[in-house]
Amino acid sequence: MKKNVLFKAFSLLVILSFALAACGAPATVATEAPAAEESAATEAPAVEAPAATEAPMMEEVAIRWRTRPDNQEEIDVYSNISTELDAELNGVTLTYEPGGTEGANYQDQLRSEVAAGTAPDVFWIPGTDVADFATRGLILNMNDMATATDGFSVEDFYAGPMGHLTFNPDTATFGADSGALWGLPRDVSTFALYLNMDLINEAGAPDPRELAKEGKWDWDAFLDVAQKTRALGADVYGYGASAWWGPYGVWLNAANGGFFNADRTACALNTPESLAGLDFQRSLYQDFDVATPYGEDPEPTFRAGKVAMFQNGRWATPGVRTVEFEWDVVELPAGPSGTAGNWLFWGAYVVNAKTEHPEEAWALVQALTTAQTQGKVAALGANIPSRVSQEALDAFLTFTPPANNQAFLNGIAADANPTAEGPLWAGSWPEYDQIMGPAIQGVLTGATTVEDFGATICDSADKVFVK
Amino acid sequence: MSEHQKPDTLTNLILRIAMIWRGVFTVVAAAGVITVWSGRLPEVPLWQKILLSLVLSIAAGFSAFGAVEIARRNHRGRMISLVIDYLAFVACAVMTLNIGEVFIGIDALAETFGRGIPYLGIVLAGYLLSSMDEYSVRKQTSEQSLKQVGRWVMIFGFILFLWQVDTINGVLYFLGKLAQPAGLISVAGMLIFGAALWTVWRQPSAAAMHVKTNHEQVISGWLFLSPNLIGFLIFFAGPLLLSFYFSFTDSDAFNTPNWIGLDNYAKILNIKFVTLSSPTQLAKEVVDIKIYDEVGRMMFGSWGILFAAADKFFWLALRNTLTFVLFAVPFSVVPALILSNVLNSKLPGMKFYRAIYFMPSIAAVVGISLVWQWLYNATIGYINYFITLGIEFWNNLFNLAIVDPKIQWVSDEKTALFAVILIAAWQTMGFNTVLFLAGLQNIPGELYEAATVDGAGAWDKFWGITLPLLAPTTFYVVSTTTIQAMQVFEQVFILMNPPEGPNNSTITLVLYLYRSGFQNFKQGYASAIAWVLFIVIFGLTLIQFQRQRQSSIYES
Amino acid sequence: MKIQSYRLLRFISNFFLYFLLTFFALVMIFPFLYMLATSFKTPADTFRYPPRMLPQNAVTLAVDGYDEPLPLYYVDVDGQQAEYALAKSNIKIGTYAPADNLTATVDRRLTEVKPTGGATNQQKVTVNGKEEKLFDVDLDGQIVPMILVSQTTVGEFIDPKNPETKIFQNVRLSEPVESVGGHPENYTEVIELNNMARALTNTALVTILVVLGQLVTSVVGGYAFARLKFPGRDTVFVFYLGTVMIPFVMLIVPLYQLMVLIGWTDRLAALIIPWIFSAYGTFLMRQHFITFPKEIEEAALIDGASRLQILRKILIPASVPALATQATFTFLYAWNSFFWPLVIINVGNEKNHVLTLALNVLRGRASDTPNLILAGAAIAIIPPLIVFIFGQRFFVESVASSGVKG
Questions:
Q1: Are residues C134 and C191 in contact, defined by beta-carbon separation less than 8 angstroms?
Q2: 3-state class of A395 per DSSP?
Q3: Lesser CB count within 10 Å: N end or C end of chain C?
Q4: Where are the beta strands (DSSP E) in B198-252?
Q5: Which homologous superfamily does the CATH classification assign to the domain defined by C187-405?
Q6: B336 with B477: CB under 8 angstroms?
Q7: A139 by DSSP, 3-state: which?
């Protein structure tokens, strides 16, 4: 008898659960939701486009946008920006949704969302993915809207990112008249060395910032500081860098080498200059043993106060701001070429090719890249404004710590020759990445020699350029 | 029952209606086919048109045949009517739920569900209360009242739950959606097909059409199976066929797939073995480097063999997956076998140990991998710390100078896969122990007693009795563990950064499938990988099955 | 005598058995203890080496004359260990030695020495072929020119009871005074950080619906296979049986495209509806029902009961253990599944995240705070663990029974 009741209750639960499933939908739309639920209420119809157009209360166009935040602070900043722009832009209701992180496949998910029709109207993607999104037809060419917009000029942004963002694959040209505009850069970033001054002082090593000012900050000086700090103990390291091939790009450039030939159509990793850069980086790991073990994430170690010089981008600043030791940043040391070399990281706001409101989306992209908005994001510490204006740069210098913000600007400056080191329009970034990762790792862990690397790398790397 | 009784006039009338309905249905379905191809419908992909018209034509054909059979009062007519009207009814019901947004409404339910959870606790408490009667030693009456109280508590809790999750609004919204034209049509469809079902279902109609009892069993059989079967066809068998089809196309999730025949499989299986004349000879000197990549080489002194493949990642993935299986399976099965034999002794406390061993297997792999990620940390992790302690102890004890290896568990290509193997073995060992334990408890104790009388030692008993009699369990354990291990994905995805690990040392078949299908969006290629994976799993299981059968023949 | 040695032998063998069992039990349980302990730590505490199990906090003390409480360290005072407060760190110290005797070193603060001959005209000396600057160092009241051999930094530690007593030593190598104390606020933080509460209720909802739905379809399907004779039954059954060994990854691509087609990407429905139809569950139920004596059922049929009534009133009440077995499996599968949600639920839509997805995002967002990551892992792992602890016997036995039948 008892079990019978149980069965009834179970089946009742099943049936009702399904009935219930229907219900929540109204709960958010029909009821006057309290303030806390308001965002939920506005988003529910936004997801279903037909519902949005049917709902009589929605006079404004609903636009969703997304970025890839790395922590809660970033989410808060972007949420505030969304609220402010919502008030500024007429006829648009904005919804900000934080995307996943790099490890959670942010851009891959976006691709499938565009395919499934659930992607937001405007989203941020890393610069390395712009070409792929564009050639797959996932993002909108905004050139026509841009030329019709008064006062808009692609020259307001750094030329590096804009070259890729205005590339027209049909004519193989780029620039203001190429007929293509895939997005606007949200930010740029370059590598710098984060310094643990406590360790450097304890080791009695010279202050890299002073050396940089005096023009003596080169590979020898760098190695000297790294060795002196490494001597402090078995668990203290002179240098640390993340386990991917990005940091390598810097040593490579500083040695006058390069990833590609001039027009980015073939591999140039096997030139003597390129190999010299790799060999110096290898010596940091193998010959001099000053670096954190390759493959282990050096960020926790740095923040635990055990790494003297930590090579990372501007995005690491918010996290480093919480450490308890004295810290600052310095530019990377100059190599045989006489300059430091750097890597230009950037990402862009782009518009979903399937958006129903391209004009409003374009307006949002512009609003998100004004000097004012970029200032707010830059104040957080995670990025550098992508607009080339003295005003924006001056504002950036005030966003301390670190005191030596100039180090980042030196990294972007033209003589550091920062470039985005992927084939981009000339090939497939993920495939290139999949070839470079193991190859560089092999050398830095001592599994393969620099000679073997030089003998084989271009055989594999050249394949990704084949179109 | 009354098979030879003459049908009354009402039944005759109803059956005539049923017959006319079959005719109407035939006409409507045929008209539907024409509409599909008339071009008046909004844009629908070609395959959907074909599918729809195929279904409609079959339904129309059978419906026409059914009408004739009903006129003849043949039970086959009833069967056809039941099938067609039932399927149409189910389709309309699903449509109604869909139009009422029941399915996508689960998202909205999730919005309020959290508020209702405490009240589900009341339901649970009520259930516990009502089931207490089993343990009650009092009189019949108090048992009954306890049950009653429990039942009321359950109902009360459930009503509160419904209230909390905003059911009223939900139902109103549902009804509101149904009141719109599309909703009304689908509800009307439900009613019409429901009524049509009734016309042939009712007992007098059945009798009039000479239905026998075994027909009743056929109908209830399919009826009972239908919810499961329909879902199974839509969400399992259909996709499986689709997967097979995709594996012959260049499907990319964005554009219409093109048929490319065996190209996907050809690329996967395009491999080459060539001899090398010296260990330093480069791959490009012996194979066409534009097509092939070096996967590995094996040297025998001054000469060797080079293994090159068009898709090197697939072969690396296959190598890693097989290595993983080769180690993870014994690591989780052999200790489980030993522990289960120990646990099978009648010593006190065995249930406690059994429970502890079982714990890892109920925890989410994602969570577990995150925990191990920090245990494996090369500089601050516990595993290296224990190794350091052990080496220090050893060095002090014997005055040695063994160097602390400071293993980079997840970032060294030599240990990365092993780190994953350890986690997997750790997690499945307890589960396997319990399976073995169940197998051991089925072995009759008399066998051991007889062996003891014969003077057999513990070791002899283990080899002579335990292992042979445990063979079916061992087969089950080994084959399920192998199938699972072949699909290793979550551990590497969470533990490794990037997931393919240092120098592709942890790229597995499923990971490569994921990367091809959902990162590079070569979904046709991913489907082909899936089928190759299936063939490998199938082959391994077949081998194990053969061996098990052989050994059991040998034993008997 | 013989019995005694037998007992001894017995004792030794039992001892080894328990030793083995306990060793493996520790291996099994250690990661869980580590997870719990770490989830209550501060980030700095998690990065400490050598690692410690219990969460600890640095002890600070308010000292007169200082605005903020000062951290306490153990220092060595005349061979005795004492707790001193760190008042100032990063004091630069130079090691100086006379140019003619480099081993006779003295330590002085950089601010205490003056350049020999004045800042503008500092005297220099050549040592080992290298030109070195000379500094005036006060040595017991005497000024001696020396060269700077090396330099480092120290901290100023003061006795909290007597702030005038100072000791200078290296801060990094000093051992801080700590007390055991957990930080349960890690859990509230991770819940806020990552919408973990919503992920938890979503997971509960998905799990409940999948378990209930799968039980219903498996029971009726299994009953049809076990008890009803109809043409095609055995063919369909063989087909079902054949698919049991087909791995799920086979379906992931087409199922994804199917979801795109019917608009269920990013919907919880995609996590529920496809999973309530299980060939394996139907098979298990069929195996169970087939063992049930036919006579009772036939008697009920003669009494005029319908099939549904028989199923409801006779078979299901007698099958609670089998149902529970299946519910257990389904529960664990639905609660822990990751691959399918990863493919079908968008990372941006945190409203529809389940716990495993939330953990995957957390892993990136909190990569520098393992305490938060492990708090998140604990939130995902603990609910099934609680269910397990309460129904331990039943859990384990249901698994065992499935294995014997399979």
A1: no
A2: helix
A3: N
A4: none
A5: MetI-like (1.10.3720.10)
A6: yes
A7: strand
Question: For residue C259, what is the nearest residue in chain B, using CA coordinates?
Answer: B235
Mutation site for A-interface testing, chosen from C172, C198, C205, C371 by largest number of A Cβ within 10 Å: C172
Chain C residue nearest residue A116, CA to CA? C260
Task: Give rounded-to-5 percent helix, strand, coil for chain A.
Answer: 50, 15, 35
Owner of token pair 């090719």: A353
Domain boundaries, chain A: 62-189+346-397, 191-343+410-465
Q: Rounded to whole angstroms, how far apart are CA atoms B221 and B228?
A: 12
- Write out the CATH class of domain A62-189+346-397: alpha beta
Amino acid type, B5 = Q
CA A50 – CA A149 distance, rounded (Å): 30
Question: pLDDT by residue for chain C (406 residues), tens digit each?
Answer: 566 778 888 888 888 889 989 999 999 999 999 999 999 998 888 888 788 899 988 888 888 888 888 999 998 888 888 899 998 888 888 989 888 888 888 888 888 888 888 888 888 888 888 888 888 888 888 888 889 888 888 999 998 888 888 888 888 888 889 899 889 999 998 888 777 888 999 999 999 999 999 999 999 999 999 988 888 889 999 888 888 778 888 899 999 989 888 888 888 999 999 999 988 889 888 888 888 888 888 888 888 888 888 888 888 888 887 888 788 888 888 999 999 998 888 776 778 889 999 998 888 777 778 899 999 999 999 988 887 877 777 667 777 666 554 4
Distance in Å from the first CA to the final CA of chain C: 49
Classify residue A168 by its DSSP letter: B
pTM of the model: 0.86
User: Phi and psi dihedrals of C125, rounded to 5?
Assistant: -140, 150
Domains of chain C: which residue ranges? 2-56, 57-180, 187-405
In angstroms, the CA C204 to CA C105 distance is: 70
Burial class, C17, CB count within 10 angstroms (exposed 0-12 / middle 13-18 / buried 19+): middle
Give chain A's length: 467
Cβ <8 Å between B111 and A13? no
| Longest CA pairwise span in chain C (Å) | 121
C chain contacts of residue A113, beta-carbon cutoff 8 Å: 265-266, 346, 348
Domain A191-343+410-465 falls under CATH 3.40.50.10490: no
Helix, coil or strand: residue C352:
helix
CA distance A457 to A437: 11
Q: CB B383: neighbour CB atoms within 10 A?
A: 18
Owner of token pair 């599909």: B36
Contact of B127 with chain C, judged by CB distance below 8 Å, is answered with no
Q: Report the amino acid identity of residue C98.
A: P
| DSSP line for B32-54 | HHHHHHHT-SPP--HHHHHHHHH
3-state SS track over B37-99: HHCCCCCCCHHHHHHHHHHHHHHHHHHHHHHHHHHCCCHHHHHHHHHHHHHHHHHHHHHHHHH
Q: Tell me which of A296, A306, A463 to substitute to probe the interface with B (most B C-beta atoms closer than 10 Å).
A: A296
Judge whether C70 and C122 are in contact, CB under 8 Å: no
Beta-bridged to residue A66, according to DSSP, are A97, A123
ipTM score here? 0.88
- The answer to whether residue C7 neighbours chain A at the CB level (below 8 Å) is no
With residues binned 3-state (H G I as helix, E B as strand, rest as coil), the percentages for chain B, rounded to 5, are 75, 5, 25
Q: Where are the domains of chain B?
A: 9-102+180-245, 271-310, 313-555
Torsion angle defined by CA atoms of residues B455, B460, B461 and B466, in that order, rounded to the nearest 10 degrees: -160
Cβ distance A295 to B503 less than 8 Å, yes or no, reads no
Cis peptide before A300 (omega within 30 of 0): no
CA B377 to chain centre: 33
Specify the 3-state DSSP secondary structure of C136: strand
Q: Is the peptide bond before A401 cis (omega within 30 degrees of 0)?
A: yes
User: Would you state the CATH architecture of domain B313-555?
Assistant: Orthogonal Bundle (1.10)
Q: Are C73 and C173 in contact (CB under 8 A)?
A: no
